[in-house]
Design a protein that fits this description.
Length: 140
């Protein structure tokens, strides 16, 4: 089975409402606030070590039967600068909690926090907007 390393669009940063244990690497996150500054429209975004997906991608992932993730609630806000980039509203992003093993499950994380996804997961993502997501073949 083929796997891919992905680096989604970074549309902002984690906010003060994010709860994370930085004594481990990658940090263990229990609550996410994502503050969007400049979202270019991709259906998956990130800010280390968190990934978020739009509601339409979340629905496809839930229906997909893919392994190695769960979806959770995220608080998404706009930065003061977002309006300067023409961003006045964004979808109700969901937190894509990646908990699988890289190279085994459909979604997994390397020790550095990078997401590794299967061919099937890539096909699901590619049915959506990924214009600013770097995708590279992955081999262990």
């Amino acid at each position: 089975m083929d796997f891919y390393a992905i680096e989604p669009e970074v549309a902002g940063e984690l906010g003060e409402g994010t709860v994370m244990d930085t004594s481990v690497h990658p940090p263990r996150v229990s609550a996410v606030e994502y503050v969007i500054t400049d979202w270019l429209g991709d259906d998956i975004i990130e800010s280390f070590p968190c990934y978020l997906v739009t509601p339409r991608l979340a629905a496809d992932l839930e229906a997909s039967g893919l392994s190695g993730f769960r979806l959770a609630t995220a608080e998404v806000t706009l930065s003061d600068e977002a309006a300067d980039f023409g961003i006045t509203q964004v979808p109700d992003f969901r937190w894509l909690v990646v908990n699988g093993r890289p190279g085994e499950d459909d979604f997994g994380l390397l020790a550095n926090g990078q997401a590794i996804i299967s061919e099937a997961a890539l096909q699901t993502l590619q049915a959506h907007t990924l214009d600013n997501c770097d995708i590279e073949p992955y081999s262990e």
